[in-house]
């Protein structure tokens, strides 16, 4: 069965949220005093360009790597994953955390 066409407004929102996630990750990396290459090495990536892609919003962190990224950045893994969930899966975030979304977005 073919997949339904993506709603252009939804696609634009996804792109915007990924870009926001990327800016947040970049700020956290810079605050940790790491270059993209250093972060890539610490999380076991072969190429630092993946870090660049994620920071520019072209990619997203797989769930199975989020703990390593949190550790490399000196962040608590649960809060790190929760922040990424807000960007990557906003509807799931809303279902799980309800009213926290507005508070988190105001802080982010």
From TrEMBL:
Which source organism? Phenylobacterium kunshanense
| One protein family per Pfam | HTH_3
Q: Which GO molecular-function terms appear in the entry?
A: DNA binding
Instruction: Read off the InterPro entries from this record.
Output: Cro/C1-type_HTH, Lambda_DNA-bd_dom_sf
Which residue positions does the secretion signal occupy?
Answer: none
* Residue ranges of domain HTH cro/C1-type in the record: 25-80
CDD domains reported in the protein's UniProt record: HTH_XRE (cd00093)
The protein's name: XRE family transcriptional regulator
């Amino acid at each position: 069965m073919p997949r339904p066409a993506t709603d252009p407004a939804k696609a634009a929102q996804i792109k915007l949220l990924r870009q926001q996630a990327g800016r947040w990750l970049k700020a956290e990396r810079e605050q940790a005093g790491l270059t993209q290459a250093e972060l890539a090495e610490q999380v076991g990536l072969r190429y630092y360009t993946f870090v660049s892609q994620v920071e520019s919003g072209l990619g997203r962190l797989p769930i199975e790597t989020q703990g390593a990224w949190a550790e490399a950045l000196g962040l608590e893994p649960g809060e790190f994953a929760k922040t990424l969930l807000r960007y990557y899966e906003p509807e799931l975030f809303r279902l799980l955390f309800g009213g926290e979304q507005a508070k988190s977005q105001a802080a982010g």
